[in-house]
Amino acid sequence: METMYGLQDRPPGTVLWLSAIQWFVFTMTNLITVPIVLGQAFGMTAQQTAMFTDRTFFVSGAIGVLQVLFGHRYPIIEGPAGMWWGVFIVLIQMTRDIGGNMQVLQQQLEFGLLIGGLVFILLAAFRALDAVRKLFSPMVTGTFLILLSLQLSKSLIEGVLGIGFRGSPYVVPKIVLLSVLLIALTLLMMIRGKGLIKNLAVLIGLAAGWVVYALFGLVDLPSTPSPLVALPKLFPFGTPRFQLGIAITGAITALILLSNLIASIQALAKAAGEEPSGASFNRGSMVTGLGTLLAGCFGTVGAVPLTAAASLVSLTGIASRLPFLMSSALVLALGFFPRVGQLVSTLPSPVGYAILFTVFGQLLGFGLRDIRTLALDQRDLFVISLSLLSGVGILFVPGTAWLNLPRVLGYLLDNGLIVGVLLVLLLEHVVFRRKTAP
User: Cβ distance 235 to 297 under 8 Å?
Assistant: First the structure.
């Protein structure tokens, strides 16, 4: 659709407010699932999950405001990066396997986010975005996305089967049936839906699942009321702790998400009929770095600009910054009202896992799509197969098998995601590096 309202335009009253509400609903669609699923994965209480949700609102809203005022200056939703919270779930699973302390992990993740934020800021400060981005070829990003999706598959499958829901160690047939129906409904809307139905498929799926679970008596209401107003807590899990493996993971994740940042800016600029400048990318990277630092300080998941925003602008023809700014300010304000987070946290975890099953199915598809762009000659097949075999194979090695090695080395080797990505970088750019024409 041709843009009716450009970046600088102020839509008239009704259009302005309806557009702001639309941005708000679309933003919430991309926010509410993550803190609920992660809160339950961390073993948080309902109260802790509610506060986790509030902090997610606060951080995401704050980054959206900063970006549109001082960063890339485009109306792009800032939401929890699938790669960040995918890494969180992988590390939670690993920590459980070796009997580790979950609070220590949370403190280490705070530090990992701080490292990731510094990576974005330094890349912007030294204008090194293009040089680093070249390292992350479709071979590397495709391998990363495939490994991340496969590592998450165990948690996702257990979630949709009802394992762990309300403490059940077994598959729950009722949950399986509801999960299959919810996945089918969401996929149907994503594939066959038109307009807003297609764009709001995740939100509609969540709402439908929530209602059905409530009808079956499977929604746990809060037992104690939260305070009406509260400030988001700084370092809620305690002082950040250094852990080399998680620090490396944070840096690698930030580097890979650089391509997501650039793609989001390019897509939105195209939808708005604009041409992004190099300064837009640098300012965007700087603010994304500040946002990732905020995520570490407030114990949430690192956020990045989401390319889905370009779809909404293309659909509506409204690229104006003002309604987006109003929406982001409202999301930020929700972070000060714990009862909102408490209400959202009543979403049953199988509903979240069913929706995430479709989302991460797409993530795996994106990885395969990256791989498909390659020549897939013998050299490419060697790089892909060796990296994936190593990364996936490590998933089946018990965490205890590394205990006789130095702790840092054991942690790195036990993380198939790190091993696979480091291996594909080494094979792609060093061992099997393609010769450039003289």
Answer: yes
